Fold this sequence. Notes:
The chain is mainly alpha-helical. It has one domain. 68% of the residues lie in helices and 0% in strands. The chain is built from three helices and no strands. The longest helix is centred in the middle third of the chain and has 24 residues, at 13-36. The protein starts with a helix and ends with a helix.
Amino acid sequence: MAFALLAAGRASRHLDLASFGAIPFGLWAFVKLERRAAKVLLPLELLGRRNFSLAISNQLFANFA
């Protein structure tokens, strides 16, 4: 996702569109692998908590500000 956002200002539009298209696949693969892993990187039940999700999304947008 970071590559897609950073590359959006350059001239290569095909690579930009492909990288934006890869974001949903990457998220899907991450969730699928995290559900199977014995030692998870990010417990998925945290994403269901409003306090955690709001803080993470605010941090994401603050990084690009």
